[in-house]
Amino acid sequence: MKKADVVDFYARLAADNPHPETELEAGNPFQLVVAVALSAQATDVGVNKATRLLFAEVTTPEQMVALGEDGLKAHIKSIGLFNTKAKNVIALSQQLIDAHGSVVPNDRAALEQLPGVGRKTANVVLNVAFGAETFAVDTHIFRVGNRTGLARGKTPLAVELKLDKATPQPFRLHAHHWLILHGRYVCKARTPECWRCVVADLCAFKPKTPAPKTVTERRPAKE
Description:
The chain is built from 10 helices and no strands. With about 220 residues, the chain is mainly alpha-helical.
């Protein structure tokens, strides 16, 4: 995608959604780390349903450790891989206490040292909690980057690095959210809704998906 088209691409997404935000619910950076860690192979809607009561009770790493694995499992049992995730969340909470004074670090390398936290989770936390210009490449952004031609790559890291290089100011801070929301609600995996896409003419995907027929054409009555 040409530089001028990249600017136009982001400008249209920005105009369509001026104030994009994460759909995960969290009241502080610690809860955000937990929510993002829980969201792996799960939907934000499902995570939010599981964490509303949890986060009303638990706001600090100390409270999470006190809750324990069994207590946490009772809250998140509706989420996939909840046994492993519960173990990781308790472990990362203890590590925050022991190594970081119970404060979520503003550093990718330190975040990636936490159990259950990979590069994508670290990038989300850095972006949402600390305002860093990071690009957390999940399945939606990976698809949008490759399908549109904005940032093609065979791995999430390759797409991330290309997005980092291609995305100009003033779009860098919110680019992650524009792309993930676009992939989640418009540029869908099975059937992209090209007919209502604000960047369809800039996108490399072909053939474009036509609008669904809302009115069935009636055959003329036989005489």
